[in-house]
Amino acid sequence: MPARHQRLTDTTDELAAALAAIRADLGLDEAFPPEAIAEAEAFAAAPALPDADQTGVEFVTIDPDGSTDLDQALHIEREGEGFVVRYAIADVPAFVEPGGAIDTEARRRGQTMYAPDGRVPLHPPVVSEGAASLLEGQERGAYVWTMRLDARGDVVDTALERARVRSREQLTYVEAQERIDGGDAMLGLLRAVGELRIALEEAREGASLDMPEEEIAHEGERYVIERRVLLPVERWNAQISLMTGMEAATMMLRAKRGILRTMPQPPAGDVADFRREVEAIGEVWAEGEHYGAFLRRLDRAQPTTLAILQAARRLFRGASYEVLGDGSDASQLEQAAIGAPYAHTTAPLRRLVDRYVLAHCEAIANGRQIPQWASDGLEGLPEIMRSSGQVAGTLERESIDVVEIAVLRDRVGDAFDAVVVDARKDGATIQLIDPPTEASCATDAQPGERITVRLVEADLASRRLRFAQS
To answer: What is the pTM of this model?
Structure first.
């Protein structure tokens, strides 16, 4: 499920303690075992670099401000009426000894865990934020995808090799958008390719939530939420990652080896429930319009849109991982939100499964045997990713809850517009219109009804947020 992208600029001791308590309850600890640290420092001191050299390619990275774990670097050029997209992905396998201390700890963690006030990384920072990160001006090893696209943006040829690269610049999204708006030639091609890929996504009936980033600031004795609508470059950049994941899936499907990221189509009942919530919120959704097209056209700056995007999460349930084999059921291998088979492959610094996908794809692309460690490592990997995903989801959900309590606790007694999401004997789950918050409410109203509610409790210590119908 897409994250809310919440970030705290500062905290009071009370909120910091509440967020720390969530991590403690989930057993999350930033500290790595001494043997993993020692192994990481040894790899970082003498990193193994590939023989192939692509340091002449003028790659750039585009990430949120302050990022240090840089997984991807990009370069695009014209080729006739089409394009050549080169996408360099951090060579994490070069820093992990199969069965070693880093590998063992990474398989225990599964993925980097994100909270509004920080993160619990997958790999020791000396690797993830240093020696393996595609930092500006540094020679690094990478898995370089070279994808040739036609004039419509369809991929017509894909190659993959391990090579040395050197990123020329580390750009923030704001800087990249300014460059594009100012006429930057290479980044202008990112816009061109991104728009073509969005059009192809729509034709596939794909969908994306594109949740705004939220910054929670402390003003005097209260917290406020400041929302930042995603810049166009963020959507264009995301399309490059999605395209790469689709190509990775295609490679592995042909070889019948590897692991895919899957998601079923949303049940008709969930779509019907979502439609009722949209109508209650007051947005027009035409009959026959696919939910992906509907979500794409919403104005992200409107408070009602945020409530709709929150409600739409019900349509993105059931994501899993499927190990491929001769007996794989092709009908179960699509990622419905993308509208095509898909694999996680572009964030190996932050997600365990990507390391195995990269190793599979590089071997398949070059007609070599898949490394034994990568093949053997698929055993138990779906369970690791599902388990860590559940922890990540709980961390995100509970962290957002306590931040929202902090934001709302001085508004006890105030009235809010809301939509009922589901009903139970002991009450209901509601979705506030603004701020877009899910909470419990004492009401007899039925799902899809729009009601006015009053905040009756917002207690940070007990993590309780309750409403009653006015």
So the answer is: 0.91
